[in-house]
Amino acid sequence: MAVRGGRVMRWWICCGLLALLAEPVIAGPPYISDDPEPTDYQHFEIYTFNLGTATRNGTTGQSGIDFNYGAAPDLQLTATLPEGFDRPVGGGTDVGWSNVQLAAKYRFLHQDGFGLDVSIFPRIFLPSGSNLVGDNHASLLLPIWVQKDWNGGWSAFGGGGCTLSEFRAVDFCEVGGVVTYQLLPKLQIGAELFHQTAVSSVTPATTSLGVGWRYDLNDNYHLLGYVSRGIENTNETNQVSWYASVLFTF
């Protein structure tokens, strides 16, 4: 029964990955979808980032630092410290401390034994404490992420989950998938399809297509970029989005 159950689980996750859309490659940022690979044990990954989204109502975004530490084999601890901004059309720009994020990624299945890397990555969003920037309510994202690598530099990862808030049972759910390719020894490129359900009656569902890249200056310094555009409710949700980051690994 255990063997049969394992085969059923593997089939289900494979189908989910195909529906979302080598040598192992590092994934996650700059994409919206995450990957199941934790930071290496006793190593750091630190992102200094800027991101934003423009709609017909204005532009919102964040700048900050994303700390990741390999606390144990297959366990990554994460803390994200963002400064947010909100620039409505025809108005001024509000700037303030946005939602601090605390997360833990745990990989419980591996490609060498199961055929896929699979992780859970629960993430807590603390209240921003502001009525101008961010969300002044706490929330919790509960996702699962999977990944498959192939020889030749190809990799695919994706998954999804739902965000729960302190005042509503479910705020929204999201699902996404990414395919990446190691084009040059120092340059990786990728494409992403991402969907998020409606947040409220005034914030409808959104689906977007994006492209990303990563350039390794050396073993410790890396440049990351990403741009996307909505293909569903574009004007209301995503006329253009971006992410830019300098990654330090050590």
Question: What can you tell me about this protein's structure?
Answer:
- This protein has 250 residues and is mostly beta strands.
- The chain has one domain: Beta Barrel (Porin).
- 11% of the residues lie in helices and 56% in strands.
- It has 3 helices and 14 strands.
- It has helices spanning 2-20, 111-114, 234-237; strands spanning 44-55, 58-72, 75-88, 94-97, 101-109, 117-120, 123-125, 139-149, 154-165, 172-184, 187-196, 206-216, 221-232, 240-249.
- Strands 1, 2, 3, 4, 5, 6, 7, 8, 9, 10, 11, 12, 13 and 14 form a 14-stranded antiparallel β-sheet that branches.
- It starts with a helix and ends with a strand.
- The model is unreliable at 1-5 and 7-26 (pLDDT under 50).
Give the oligomeric state of the chains in this entry, treating copies of one chain as homo and distinct chains as hetero: single chain
Class inferred from helices and paired strands: mainly beta
Overall average residue pLDDT: 88
- Domain module tally: 1
Q: What is the level 1 CATH name?
A: Mainly Beta
> Could you state the CATH homologous superfamily?
monomeric porin ompg
End-to-end C-alpha gap: 43 Å
* Share in β-strands: over 45%
How many DSSP-defined strands?
Answer: 14
What's the order of the H and E elements?
HEEEEEHEEEEEEEEHE
- Uncertain segments: 1-5, 7-26
Largest sheet entry: 14 strands, antiparallel
Shape: globular
CATH topology, by name, is Porin
Radius of gyration: 18 Å
The percent of residues in helical segments reads 10-25%
Q: What is the overall number of helices?
A: 3
For the record, the CATH architecture stands as Beta Barrel
Protein name: Putative MetA-pathway of phenol degradation
Keywords: Signal
Signal peptide: 1-27
